[in-house]
Amino acid sequence: MTLQTILGAGGAIGTELARELKSYTNQIRLVSRNPQKVNDTDQLFPADLTDAQQVDKAIEGSSIVYLVVGLEYKVDVWREKWPALMSNVIKACEKHNSRLVFFDNIYMYDREFLYDMTEETPVRPTSKKGEVRAQIAGMLLDEVKAGRLNALIARSADFMGTKNSVPYEMVYKNLKSGKSAYWFANSNIVHSFTAVADAAKGTEMLGNTLTAFNQAWHLPTSSNQLTGTQWVELFAKELNVKAKVSVMPGWMLGILGFFMPKMKEFKEMQYQYDRPYVFNSSKFEKYFNYKPATPEEAVKAVVRAAETAAV
């Protein structure tokens, strides 16, 4: 069996990915500042991924490397750390002949084409965070085109899970505590979400498929188009509570930013909620004959995971 390494283990995707990889290998290396075992046979490798030497050692011996790091949600942090981190990972993968799987988002896409996002959607970032994502994806693709690196990009829509996801933080938690769910900009507009389990499963399938490399893929996401209100209704039904939703306009994000730094950072991304946001993963679904979780299944999974963790 071959060693597969997760850089950024412990986050929402890294944890689920470790579980999924067990079906391929029992040699899984989890790398983060303070990694915790997911499977009994996991190798724990504490490392600072902003340090080139530590990244090199973390990747050494790996056949496949998954970059699923989630840096602090601040544009200044992203600008400072993401390019250096990507450069360190690329150099180490090339040195050790490791294949690289980069878990990415859609921030770099042209906001005028969010109504049907495919792997061919134009890259034209209109946010500061989007500019950083375009830069680091470009670094990877340049090395692929030059023939120095075997890599792929696995892109997800906003994801639905119990860690750092809008549906969990703004909908589930509020409804669970008897409050109105929060939504951004307009709750009557459709918005896709990738279930964490599908994101992790899709990532490990791509990583273990040689023919999937040297291209970008959209991770499996339901094609059912639900509005924000309909997502809230699904959570309310699952929790057996009344579906109440409060829409947060852009100006309110600016005010909240004074008290909640994350809201200030999110303000430039609110355009993703004021227009149809439809994520198309038909390329993946056809290639792997894969059926993503339905919205109902995705919501049930979030509620079940949250309730299990609370016990």
TrEMBL record:
Residues 8-110 form the NAD(P)-binding domain. SUPFAM superfamilies: NAD(P)-binding Rossmann-fold domains (SSF51735). InterPro entries: Lipid_A_modif_metabolic_enz, NAD(P)-bd_dom, NAD(P)-bd_dom_sf. Gene3D superfamilies: NAD(P)-binding Rossmann-like Domain. This is NAD-dependent dehydratase. It comes from Solitalea longa.
